[in-house]
Amino acid sequence: MSQGGYRRPHRWAWWMERPGYMRFMIRELTSFFMAGYLVVFLVTLSKVGAGDAAFAEWVDALSGPGWVAAHVVALLAAVWHAVTFFGAVPQAMPIFLGERRLSAPIAMIVMGYGPWLTVSAVVVWWILR
Amino acid sequence: MSKEQALESAEHAGSGVRGAASPEATAERTITLELFRYHPETDSEPRFQSYEVPYNEDWVVLDAINWIKDHVDGTVTHRWSCRMGVCGSCGMMVNGEPVLTCAAFLKSYFPFAVRVEPLVNFPVERDLVVSMDGFMEKLEAVKPYMIRDDVNDTSGGEFRQSPAELAKYKQFSMCINCMLCYAACPVVGHEEEFLGPAALALGHRYNKDSRDQGFAERMDVMLSDEAMWGCTFVGECSVVCPKHVDPAGAIQQAKAMGAQEYFKRFVMPKGAGA
User: Fold this and answer.
1) B113 is in which domain, residue-wise?
2) Number of domains, chain B
3) Which one of A2, A18, A24, A28 would you mutate to disrupt binding with B, by most B Cβ within 10 Å of its Cβ?
4) Segment B202-211, tens digit of pLDDT
5) How many CA atoms lie within 13 A of B273 on its CB side?
6) What values do phi and psi take at A33, rounded to 5?
7) Which residues of A touch B253 (CB under 8 A)?
8) Which of B50, B161, B166, B187 shows a CA-CA span of 20 to 30 A to A13?
């Protein structure tokens, strides 16, 4: 599909040209923080298997300000990723009632925020019961 | 052209420009248009040329370009036709934003200069005109037409469809091929072979049409690496679309259908196909 004509130079800073591009890059970068958190989580599981003393030592290490800050950043990244994910739901999974399409805010509640809050409430109840 | 010359010329502006004929409508102020110029027979590199244009708040950018071509510089080359957001011919970059110039009012930019360039992510043929060859090939690639064995058999009457079935794809059929979505898509800019938003949305439009039976045939193209899996869902194609087609949404829906089709073909290599 090659075409003739003048080709403008490649724009290496394309992601700074539009706010939407920047939001896209931030959304993609959140995956690094979530992957980092997953590594910490896997190490935590391995400490559980290593015995009470190893687990307590690991939990003690995690209570340091650096680790707490890292977890806060990972949480913010995860929340932002979830928000963008739920925002995409109405586009990716339209719901039709006959010939009428469910509006985006309703679709986000029905297929995103609603189940999310429900599952979160169940988890919180299960932990605090 | 000086400001005085521009104003004097505006008094004689012809009927080709809306709202330009009467002296009463003649603007007292001017606005600067910086046009991207590139003539392949004389220019090795593009350049920008500034023009003073009478400012009329009823004018759109296309009116201003037409005025330049009619009254100042006949060598300026651009595409346009309907002047009302239907034909999709006049898409250009205005201050870095892909827009239909027939829908971009000068008053949105006044008093600042307006920089007009050909749509990015396309080779430039001349001035503000880009090559559409690759785009047309991509549109053709998704087989954007009704596929069924009896498509020419009208003995049973028309192929009927309910309003609910129409609603499933109507939005995606509103595309006017203005190519703004290609200019907004960074994947198109990086991967020349990527089919791109409009073509993929058009393919999905036919896949969602209850009268069509070409899903499997069309999926042979849409499941390829340079088709829908190339989309990273930046989503700006839908933001700039003047017809609210939402190509980004179409592609994500196509991915869901494509994933099902992929696994169906994996499980049943010879018997898959909707």
Assistant:
1) 3-129
2) 2
3) A18
4) 999 999 999 9
5) 10
6) -65, -40
7) 91-94
8) B50
